[in-house]
Specification:
By secondary structure, this protein is an alpha/beta fold. It contains 10 helices and 7 strands. The chain has helices spanning 35-46, 57-64, 70-83, 88-98, 110-119, 135-139, 153-156, 163-173, 187-190, 214-220, and strands at residues 5-8, 15-16, 105-106, 123-128, 149-152, 180-184, 199-202. The strands form 2 sheets. It has a 5-stranded parallel sheet, with helices on both faces. The protein has a two-stranded antiparallel sheet with strand order 2-3. Helix 9 (187-190) links the parallel strand 6 and strand 7 (199-202). It is globular. This is HAD family hydrolase.
């Protein structure tokens, strides 16, 4: 059977938050991490699963529910940054980058993939564990017209791999779960679509320059060719 609906993760799948040197310098606080420290901090800010620092009881509660509530998300990630040795002022600055959709850049084939699917009448959804509105990242590029459903965990009250978030997205797409493909960078989270009968394709959350066509290849493996 052909694919009639395609779901995509956001971070590490369609978009990526890539560090800029200016984020780690010029803050007036004297904090300038080396390249390895900066890379590890970015990994901790964007990893889809896993816990990188120890929390107190309040911090652990915030971490466990971080993608369901913006206030808890802020509490949890500021704790991660502080626990990673980031000074308070710098932590606030970096967290502001994390939750600013304008700071997120798309993978090279994201636009072409979304447009191809829309042109072929294949319904498209974004399913993300996230606590801020990512719609502006798509709207800024005119890609919002290709996306039929935005299933964001903090709006729905369920986070991947909870079947509820996939069921929500597929119900609104109006597609057959067996003919709906979820593409994401985490088998543990995004692979939860299998629990509702959907298909899953894994992509590697590599830096943008190192991953020019992973989405294109994932679709090709399911019989959908993206031009270019």
């Amino acid at each position: 059977m052909g694919i009639e609906g395609a779901l995509f993760d956001f971070s590490g799948t369609t978009f990526r938050l890539e560090e800029k040197e200016s984020w780690f310098t010029g803050g007036g606080d004297g904090w300038t991490p080396d390249v390895h420290e900066a890379a590890e901090i970015m990994r901790r800010m964007t990893a889809p699963v896993g816990q990188s620092v120890a929390f107190d009881a309040e911090g652990q509660r915030a971490w466990d529910a971080r993608d369901l509530d913006p206030a808890l998300h802020r509490h949890a990630y500021l704790a991660v940054l502080r626990g990673s040795g980031v000074p308070e002022a710098a932590a606030e600055r970096l967290y502001g980058r994390l939750v600013d959709p304008a700071e997120w850049a798309p993978y090279a084939d994201t636009g072409a993939v979304l447009e191809t699917l829309a042109d072929r009448g294949i319904r498209v959804g974004i399913v993300s564990n996230i606590a801020f509105d990512i719609r502006p990242a798509f709207a800024a590029r005119g890609w919002d017209r290709f996306v039929d459903v935005m299933a964001l965990s903090y709006e729905i009250g369920a986070a991947k791999p909870d079947p509820a978030i996939f069921r929500h997205a597929i119900d609104r797409l109006g597609t057959d779960p067996a003919r709906t493909l979820m593409i994401g960078d985490s088998d543990a989270a995004d692979g939860g679509v299998r629990a509702v009968g959907g298909q899953f394709a894994l992509v590697d959350p590599l830096p943008i320059a190192q991953r020019p066509r992973a989405l294109t290849d994932a679709l090709a493996a399911h019989g959908i060719t993206v031009p270019g």
